[in-house]
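#help-structures
NK: newbie question, is this the right format to request a structure? protein is Anaphase-promoting complex subunit 4 WD40 domain-containing protein
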Amino acid sequence: MTFSPDGLLLATGHGAKAVQLWDTVEQRRAGPALFGHTERVLSVAFSPDGRLLATGSEDGTARLWDVDSRTLITESLDSAGVVDSLLFAPDGNSLYIKGRTIRRWDITDPRQPRKAEKHFANNLSSAPVLSTDGLLITGHVGGIAQLWEAQEQTRIDAPLRGHASDVTALALAPSGDVLAAGSDDVQLWDVRTRQMIHEPLACSGDMVTEMAFSRDGRTLVAISGDRISEDPEEPDFSFNIWETTTWTKLPSPHIGHSGHVTASAFSPDSRLFATGGIDGQLRIRTLPTAMSGERPVP
């Protein structure tokens, strides 16, 4: 799931090969679902100007939609495997598609996209993150995070090694200077010095599955749970919330989902945090000050 840059829309991907747009003011669907993929939709991303929506699927393709008209604007963009993550470049001229590897497409003219290159990274284990100045960070098996100069496809220094297990989630502070890497805990890195800047942040459960900084940079949220549950229909997932000045852990609300939590996103104004899960529920909360304000979207 992802919020539009103006916060007025929320896009969600579904197992029914569909993408749904939601009106965040009226708390209702913003038109009918968008159909174009032939398998489950696993990833969505708005362009920086909010005019395009990119969607990725188990069918191995990404698609570009015109948000205003709700129409496909180009042929599907192929990928190396299931498309579980999408990133627009800050200037909106490139789209990074993560499958088994990462492919960059030039979408300067979104109606005639051009495959620029297959990207470098192997053994990927999490969705990558991209900074406003073109720094791409990838998470890998074996507890490694790697920094890249995205456009030139060049590694920046040695990889960051901290976790004993695979890196399962990454989040980059809006300022671009702090990287949070999630696995069985959350480790914080200074992007400039490549040094760990704090003791690891402990999480409930045994693995971080979702992680995000608020857009104002004041809050870090990690969703964690057990990889193997005694009851697969009721795995134990929970919120972990920290304020980023002192990295103090804040009280957390009940997760509110039955089953795995598969998506999360902060709104652009940092007021709202949305979560989605295999229970088919989309929930929107205020974090961290009004944690009782859970508002399910119908």
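mod (FA): yep, format's fine, and the tokens are attached above. The domain at 1-119 is CATH 2.130.10.10 (Methylamine Dehydrogenase; Chain H).
NK: thank you!
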